[in-house]
Design brief:
Blueprint lengths: L2 H16 L37 E5 L2 E5 L4 E6 L2 E6 L6 E5 L3 E5 L6 E7 L5 E3 L4 E6 L4 E6 L7 E4 L14 E2 L3 E5 L3 E9 L5 E9 L5 E7 L8 E4 L5 E9 L5 E9 L6 E2 L9 E9 L2 E10 L6 E9 L4 E3 L5 E8 L2 E6 L11 E5 L4 E6 L1 E6 L8
Antiparallel strand pairs: 1-2, 1-29, 2-3, 4-5, 5-6, 6-7, 8-9, 9-10, 10-11, 12-14, 13-14, 14-15, 15-16, 17-18, 18-19, 19-20, 21-22, 22-23, 23-24, 25-26, 26-27, 27-28
Length: 380
């Protein structure tokens, strides 16, 4: 039985026995390493994992996996909206397609016993093994230690009326959490008035004092900002959203600002296509790294191209390798890469490879995101 099947079976049994809302323990067996895809030089080994391995976590179309420099530790079936390392790097968190937030031991690949239905699409690590998330159902902030997710604490949030008053007859949505760290929440409320237009009202909440700073109304995005990053020094942030255009197309919109700014500043992107979407966004040594998909729907036949970009606070630079979709450094001699596989760059079955000085090994296919546990640091 698949890992998802085991989880659902255990979940149903728990509900029947307890006659209560579910969310607690998953009695999942250790996940076996997957079958090894063909490698360009050498296959991953199955040697025992060291007591303190250097680990990366990847997301693929139908699985999430843990890998080291020479092997896949474990993988779990399913689709995942978010994953990452706890602040102290001792655990990995993941949110699956059912809305469950769970924790994974990076050494063994085992799921920890406790999980919780977070009703969220992303979580944010704060301190040690603590994460926070926004419950979209009851519109509240939750905080929990990944070891004890059942003990999550709930904090209802009430934001003040927008600094810039909504237009007459316009509606204001409930708050949404876009980015967070140990000390700040960046939230948005959407003002709508019909049709395809809307505005974002942005707020920065100081978690230490409770003070709320407003950045005002942003009028260049007709959908909510839905992803963002705060720099490790806690001084500034970048938010991303996708503006609905037409014919099912969306255009990427980016803004940046210091957390005490009066108003955000648009972060112009070199690609001006009306069918440009964001795949991933990360901070790598305080350089903003994003991967995007440009759907060239005006062409016949329709095609999609992927590209990887970095912004170093001054300008955008596209990675010169057109086949490279994502990369992460594990050590000075070991790098993970996600690149489009054979037979041509148009093949979307992207392969996750580990590259060392002596070999390149394929670890997984259909991958689109890879993260290591290294914490970015900013030069002061």
């Amino acid at each position: 039985m698949s890992w998802i099947g085991r989880r659902l079976a255990a979940l149903i049994l728990t509900c029947v026995l307890l006659l209560a809302a579910c969310g607690g323990e998953k009695h999942a067996n250790p996940v076996a390493p997957p079958s090894t895809p063909a490698a360009s030089s050498a296959a991953p080994t199955t040697a025992p994992v060291s007591a303190d391995p250097a680990v990366a976590v990847y997301r693929a179309r139908t699985e999430l996996g843990l890998v080291t420099a020479d092997r896949v530790i474990a993988h779990v079936d399913g689709q995942f909206s978010d994953d990452g390392f706890a602040r102290d790097e001792s655990l990995i968190y993941a949110i699956d397609e059912t809305g469950d937030l769970e924790a994974i031991d990076p050494h063994s690949g085992d799921l920890l016993p406790e999980y919780i239905g977070c009703h969220c699409g992303q979580a944010f690590p704060t301190t040690a093994t603590t994460v926070i998330w926004w419950n979209e159902t009851d519109k509240s902030l939750y905080e929990a230690d990944l070891h004890h997710l059942r003990a999550a604490t709930k904090t209802p949030m009430t934001l003040p009326d927008p600094r810039d008053p909504p237009g007459a007859g316009n509606r204001l949505s409930d708050p949404t959490l876009v980015a967070a760290d140990a000390h700040h929440l960046i939230m948005t409320r959407q003002e709508t008035g019909g049709g395809y237009w809307s505005y974002n009202h942005l707020y920065v909440v100081d978690r230490d004092t409770g003070a709320i700073h407003q950045l005002g109304r942003y009028e260049h995005l007709n959908e909510p900002f839905n992803r963002g990053v705060i720099t490790p020094d806690g001084r500034s942030a970048v938010l991303a959203g996708e503006a609905h255009v037409s014919n099912g197309c969306s255009h990427l919109e980016l803004i940046r600002f210091t957390l005490d700014a009066d108003h955000p500043t648009p972060l112009a992107f070199p690609i001006t296509s009306e069918c440009l979407t964001l795949d991933t966004i990360h901070l790598t040594d305080c350089e903003l790294t994003i991967s995007v998909t440009d759907r060239k729907w005006e062409q016949q036949p329709r095609e999609s191209t992927h590209s990887l970009w970095q912004f170093d606070s001054r300008q955008w630079q596209q990675n010169p390798d057109p086949d490279l979709l994502a990369h992460a450094t594990l050590s000075p001699t070991t790098t993970f890469e996600i690149r489009t596989g054979p037979p041509s760059p148009k093949d979307t079955s992207a392969q996750l490879t580990v590259v060392t000085a002596t070999k390149t090994t394929v670890l997984a296919t259909h991958a689109y995101d890879i993260q290591t546990a290294h914490e970015p640091t900013c030069a002061q």
